[in-house]
Write a structure and sequence with these properties.
two-stranded antiparallel sheet, 3 helices, 9 strands, 25% strand, 5-stranded antiparallel β-sheet
Length: 229
């Protein structure tokens, strides 16, 4: 009699044992471990902090502004700065500027511009001088002068000048040194329509009448001396 079932069963058992033995013989791969680099982690953390601080600084400055003065009209060098000449703008806080804030308006009004200030110019401390006071023993005399009667260098308040008596138009030069009068520039303005300069000067009171008489003749010229402010 031929029996095949037990043999087949034995073969299955032997095959199963071989499979188990093969599985046990193959070792499992160890788990992969990531390498931590302290330097990279620290650099990343620093970048995050810097970015956060930058955002905070930008937002903080955007929210905080400072109101400062600018000119609303053209101001010519030598003119007084009046309330109607000014307006304001907002600047971001923290900007490096010498602009005058609105709470210092008393430092500007009535002062004399030392430079030409076109409309929209920031008013800085270097743009004006303190108002020049006229003493009790002094007077102010005004002159209307053309270009040839003025120095080539623009005048400004506080400049030390000499007023020179000149000959008649197309006359001969004086044979002797002409008479001069020392003075200090008080204000200067230009009349563009007429092409003349209006210069007010401070002179000793006892010379004011003689200079006023000369001013009406137009026979004067101005000399700018060193030591002007």
């Amino acid at each position: 009699m031929t029996t095949t079932a037990p043999e087949t069963e034995n073969k299955k058992r032997r095959g199963s044992k071989k499979a188990d033995t093969s599985a046990e013989a193959t070792p499992g791969l160890p788990p992969t471990r990531s390498r931590r680099r302290p330097g990279v982690i620290a650099a990343g953390a620093a970048l995050v902090i810097v970015g956060a601080l930058g955002s905070w600084f930008y937002i903080s400055n955007a929210r905080h502004t400072e109101t400062v003065f600018v000119t609303s009209t053209d101001i010519t060098r030598g003119e007084k700065i009046e309330q109607g000449d000014l307006t304001t703008i907002e600047l971001a806080a923290g900007q490096k500027t010498d602009a005058i804030p609105v709470d210092q308006s008393g430092d500007i009004l009535g002062q004399t511009a030392t430079v030409d200030l076109p409309a929209g110019s920031l008013i800085t401390h270097g743009a004006f001088n303190a108002r020049i006071e006229v003493g009790e023993d002094q007077s102010v005399v005004g002159f209307t002068l053309s270009g040839p009667q003025m120095p080539s260098t623009p005048l400004t308040a506080g400049d030390k000048i000499r007023i020179v008596e000149t000959p008649v138009a197309q006359g001969d030069p004086p044979a002797e040194t002409p008479k001069t009068f020392p003075a200090t520039v008080f204000t200067v303005s230009q009349d563009l329509d007429k092409g003349v300069w209006v210069v007010n000067v401070i002179v000793p009171k006892d010379e004011a009448a003689a200079l006023a008489a000369r001013a009406t003749t137009g026979r004067v010229a101005l000399i700018l001396d060193g030591g002007g402010e």
